[in-house]
Amino acid sequence: MSTPTRRQERLHDLLDLARARRADYLRDLEELVSIDSGSYDADGVDRVADWIERRLARLGFDVERVRFPAAPDGHRSGDALIGRKRGGLPESEGGRRILLAGHMDTVFENGTAAARPFRIEGSTAYGPGVSDDKGGLLAGLTALEILGECGIDAYDELVLLATPDEEIGSPASRPLIEATAVGAHFGLGLECARENGDLVIARKGVADFRLTVTGRAAHAGIEPERGANAALAAAHLTVAIQALNGHWDDVTVNVGVVRAGTRANIVCPQAELRIEVRAATTADIQRVTRAIREAADQPGVPGVTVEVEQLDLCPPMEDTPASRRMFDHACRAARAAGVELGAAATGGVGDANLIAGTGVPVLDGLGPVGGADHTPQEWLDVTSVPRRIALLADLIASLGEAGSG
Question: Which part of the chain is the Peptidase M20 dimerisation domain (predicted)?
């Protein structure tokens, strides 16, 4: 038998430590899942932040707690946390700065934790947020813990970012996420793995548009010819924009909202369309944007004008050569542990998109295996926990010294 490589030995040590912490992980997960922390429940999110802040401090991280101002509608998001720990391999000697990102909020209303408490049936754990994202966030914390216990510090800096509002698009924390990503060499998303165990190599970006269609009112019975029907133009635009589907691979275009008119006896003077575009690349989002503007320039009804506004843009997390190299690092560790990993692309967005949008290569889905997110059936595979924590810890160690060879 050949002598195990240094990396195999390291992985086996990490796996032993992760297995030894399985009971602690499940106890901690029950505590976190028992805290209601919906995106609009700032107090609940802050209770989760309190818990994570204490854990990071015990791990030797310097922790910054960020409070956001209230939004114009009066809503206040919970706090964000940024934990930082310097390593023993400076960037000048090839050490790398690694950003781990997870979120503390869930989609569930207050009272859900009591109505549907954490439970384990066989090898599966259930509860609100057990997979999305408390299970993944806790896996990240545990991976950092076992790295420290193994004395692994061959990195420039580890940064853990915990956000309060990912489930509603990160309206408060987006600038913080993007600023924190600046200077990072690698980004690791702590969302849980796909149901089949795949990691996430790509996430589509999302662009939201509002089209304001302005026509001219007239009496519909006496002089309709003096009007310019914005509702008719909106109908033409809906057909034209929906027809963009199928023009490009991995692109979807959806006219999700159409509003027009106030009374049946008035030629409709104004209408509004809300459109969502999802695409795997920035280039495709730009192509669809141009196509929407070209359609708006030809509304099909004389006398009608159309204003196009891009309301929001969440950049895609693209499948790049750099992210593929990160995936290769993960696969080598997985094979040493007897696991084959796949790379999945998804239409769902998350904070990993925002990190990728700054130019940092990102790999996501690095938590334990879980599924049925956002539903009462949300689950986590308990048997996957030790191995996924060990794989995450090994990946951090490998990436941390990636520039030193």
Answer: 201-301
* Rounded Cα gap, residues 34 and 15, in angstroms: 27
Cα separation of 347 and 316, whole Å?
9
Peptide bond into 133 cis (omega under 30): yes
DSSP 383: G
For 39, half-sphere exposure in the C-beta direction (CA atoms, 13 angstrom radius) is: 16
Per-residue pLDDT tens digits for 197-255: 999 999 999 999 999 999 999 999 999 999 999 999 999 999 999 999 999 999 999 99
Residue count (the chain): 405
Three-state DSSP state, 313 = strand
Phi and psi at 376, nearest 5°, equal -65, -15
Any idea what the Cα angle at residue 67 is, between residues 65 and 68, rounded to 5°?
145
CATH, domain range 6-203+316-400 = 3.40.630.10
Two structure tokens written together for 135: 């299970």
Q: Contact at 8 Å (CB) between 265 and 227? A: no
Nearest residue to 387 via CA among 325, 328, 336: 336
Phi then psi dihedrals of residue 15, to 5 deg: -65, -40
Q: Which residues in the chain are classed under CATH 3.40.630.10?
A: 6-203+316-400
258 to 181, 211, 274, 309: CA distances (angstroms)? 37, 10, 7, 15
Q: Could you tell me what percentage of the chain is helix, strand and coil, using 3-state DSSP and rounding each to the nearest 5?
A: 35, 25, 35
Q: So what CATH class is 205-313?
A: alpha beta
CB 164 within 8 A of CB 77: yes
pLDDT in tens, 285-343: 999 999 999 999 999 999 999 999 999 999 999 999 999 999 999 998 888 877 889 99
CB-CB neighbours of 119 under 10 Å: 12
Tokens of 302: 């004389």
Cα→Cα distances 45→31, 48, 53, 162, 353, Å: 13, 5, 12, 10, 22
DSSP state of 104: -
Residues of the chain with CATH 3.30.70.360: 205-313
